[in-house]
Design a protein that fits this description.
There is one protein chain. This protein starts with a strand and ends in a 7-residue tail after the last helix. It has a single domain, classed as Rossmann fold (3-Layer(aba) Sandwich), CATH 3.40.50.300. β1 (about 5-15) and β2 (about 20-30) form a beta hairpin. By secondary structure, the protein is α/β, with parallel strands linked by helices. The strands form two sheets. It has a six-stranded mixed β-sheet, with helices on both faces. Strands 2-1-4 form a three-stranded antiparallel β-sheet, with helices on one face. The protein has helices spanning about 45-55, 70-80, 100-110, 115-125, 140-155, 170-190, 200-205, 225-230, 235-250, and strands at about 5-15, 20-30, 35-40, 60-65, 80-85, 160-165, 190-195, 210-215, 215-225. It binds adenosine-5'-diphosphate and magnesium ion. The site of adenosine-5'-diphosphate has 12 residues, from β2 and α1.
């Protein structure tokens, strides 16, 4: 499913009448079946944008359209078709075994039993769910918790998956497994994936296209090879550093 974001804007209202413009009039389109690297420095507005794209926050201006559907009219329909994982906040119940949370998701999203069983078999094989599925999230490592969250967000076969820093704080091997899992999900299920990460290898191994934002504004929307050709280097880490530095100096425009 494709996503269309038009003039999206979010202003947080702070104490004493102060305001923070977190997302400033951004527009982009994400075609069906792509994996997009959504990047920007800390505080750029990535999570705020994802929250508006998943209906968690209401924009102050602009709109999000998911395959022609919008949150005002088709909220439930969109919810059934999208999954979201926040690396810094679990969707699972902290104190109950992971398996029980997964069953809750199954019931909430009315996943047929055969689909549930098949998905669990696939996810168990790739993510090694057996190791920890009977334990509550509070006893899990960060990597295990992320694998559990990924399972929960995909158990109902969403067409779009939002991943906000899914590899943050995770060891290299678990990271690699999670990457493989994301790639496989995209290839085999044709899931459209929006991936926020600070890990350059995540981008290199998964994303053909990138959207970069800084201080709430869109500064790049294009392919990874094009970005490399603009900067005349294949060193993505170097490119990102340059972009963020230019942003700090107040001239972050690339495209
Ligand atoms: N709930 C909130 N209330 C007030 N300000 C917020 C809130 N959430 C985020 N912000 C501010 O909005 C800006 C964008 O934040 P965020 O979307 O979390 O950025 P990112 O995910 O790119 O790090 C930051 O300046 C942040 O401090
Ligand atoms: Mg964030």
């Amino acid at each position: 499913m494709s996503i269309e974001v038009n003039n999206l804007t979010k202003i947080y209202r702070l104490k004493h009448g102060q305001k923070k413009l977190a997302v400033d009039n951004i527009s982009f389109t994400i075609p069906d079946g792509e994996i997009i690297g959504f990047i920007g420095p800390n505080g750029a507005g990535k999570s705020t944008t994802i929250k508006m794209m998943t209906g968690i926050l209401v924009p102050d201006n602009g709109s999000v359209s998911i395959d022609g559907l919008n949150f005002k009219k088709n909220r439930k329909e969109i919810m059934m078709k999208t999954g979201v994982v926040f690396g810094q906040k679990s969707v699972l119940c902290w104190d109950i075994p992971v398996i029980d949370s997964l069953k809750l998701f199954r019931d909430m999203y009315r996943v047929p039993n055969d689909v549930y069983k098949e998905n669990m078999a696939v996810f168990t094989e790739i993510l090694g769910l057996d190791e920890f599925i009977n334990q509550p999230p509070r006893l899990l490592s960060l990597g295990q918790r992320m694998k559990a969250d990924l399972t929960a967000s995909l158990i109902y076969n969403p067409d779009i998956l939002f991943l906000d820093e899914p590899t943050i704080g995770i060891d290299v091997l678990s990271k690699e497994r999670i990457r493989q899992f994301i790639k496989k999900t995209n290839e085999e299920r044709h899931t459209t994936i929006i991936l926020t990460t600070h890990d350059v290898s995540d981008i290199e191994s998964l994303c053909e296209k990138m959207i970069i934002i800084d201080k709430g504004s869109l500064i790049y929307d294009g392919t990874l090879p094009k970005l490399k050709s603009i900067y005349r280097t294949t060193d993505l880490e170097e490119i990102i550093k340059k972009i963020y530095l230019a942003g700090e100096e107040g001239n972050a425009k690339i495209c």
